[in-house]
Amino acid sequence: MDHFHSEHNELCCESVPLTAIARALGTPTYVYSSAALAANYLAYAEALAGTDHLICYAVKANSNIAVLNQLARLGAGFDIVSGGELARVLAAGGDPARVVFSGVGKSTAEMAEALRAGIHCFNVESAAELERLDRVAGELGLRAPVSLRVNPDIDAGTHPYIATGLAENKFGLPIGEARACYARARAMRHIDIRGVDCHIGSQLTALAPFEAALQRVLLLIAELRADGVPLRHLDLGGGLGVRYGDENPPPPADYVAALRRHTDTLGLCLLIEPGRSIAASAGVLLTRVEYLKENQSRHFAIVDAAMNDLLRPALYQAWMAIEPVTPRHDAPERRYDVVGPVCETGDFLGRGRSLRLAAGDLLCVRGAGAYGFTMSSNYNSRPRAAEVMVAGDRFHVVRDRETTADLLRGERPLPGS
Ligand code: LLP
Fold first, then answer.
1. What is the β-pairing status of strands 362-365 and 283-294?
2. For residue 124, what is the domain's CATH number?
3. Mutation test of ligand 1: which of 121, 276, 375 has the most ligand atoms closer than 8 Å to its C-beta?
4. What gap in Å lies between CA 75 and CA 190, rounded to an integer?
5. What residues are in contact with ligand 1 under a 6 Å CB criterion?
6. Same domain for 117 and 255?
7. What would the pLDDT profile of 80-126 be if each residue is shown by its tens digit?
8. How many folded domains does the chain comprise?
């Protein structure tokens, strides 16, 4: 079910018209549907029922603490990649014992924070990281629970910037070196081996790459077991894609069923780290048309959201649907480049979109609940957008729009000037 739907010619989130949110808070504003978030999470929970599992929502997709709190209440664990994300999970009431920590560059301080918090597992991405973690845990008098993240050298068939499972990518240990690294880990005094981890990329729209990676990981698991390495879980990462336009990704139920065909008999707890497929369809970015402008070759709709608010179109040439909140029929249909106020030619939300527009109209960018606000910045000294969560017929401001004072906070001129 789509929790963003049209009622009386106006787009609503659950029972709240988006015009009411824009009127109350201005634009640009991110709007999330609490019911959509829950439904997207529960699709995974239902597909995994009956098998030992942990769903670790990838915090990087949308880290607003209201989002994390809602998922924590539904029983989610979390996949984090920084001390900042750990702090958010804890502030949101998340259970540290259900947190896995991924990422190639964990600092000593981040390791110590996560060890003290008592997280479920570190997904260790290199032998050097393993050695540092052993030392940090030893200094704290603790033992670090560890999975090694292996890189299976599989082409995920996604945008090159978000493919992570090829040998040329910086992620994970080459799978051929994993066995030796597990042997080293076993000999370390402050490391507890918990499992094997793998993540091959994001916005995957086919199951075949997941299954190919899993086949390689299953071979490794058999070897590790032959070596006597004690394993408790298998973490297969995230990466299931969503439909932004004409993509046709399998639903979570099919994806989980494909994994379970191979994993149910392993006797291991199955961990997954979905981000986008939980958050993307649960959010839109609301923006208002400031000006219409045309030249010899193009029509431009200049809106008040820009690449600093939503980077995906500029960074990955990502196509995201742009819809009028209150469709009008009294303006000619034109093919618009929908662009923001930032001083870069790459600052667009969409190009060549057929729309009927007048200045002042509200637009919304669909699928913006994942990698939207979390990738936003203050480029061009633009305050970051407000975030709103809708639940039924109520809406709650879950992050205030930044102010000019927020922008200047912490800066100062040189002394004596
Ligand atoms: N686990 C690990 C170790 C990851 O690196 C990622 C995403 C995930 C889980 C979650 O993947 P998901 O289920 O969301 O696909 N900014 C990009 C996406 C970057 C994803 C990076 N890693 C975008 O806007 O498309």
1. antiparallel
2. 3.20.20.10
3. 276
4. 29
5. 58, 61, 79, 102, 162, 164, 199, 202-203, 237-240, 273-277, 312, 316, 371, 375
6. yes
7. 999 999 999 999 999 999 999 999 999 999 999 999 999 999 999 99
8. 2
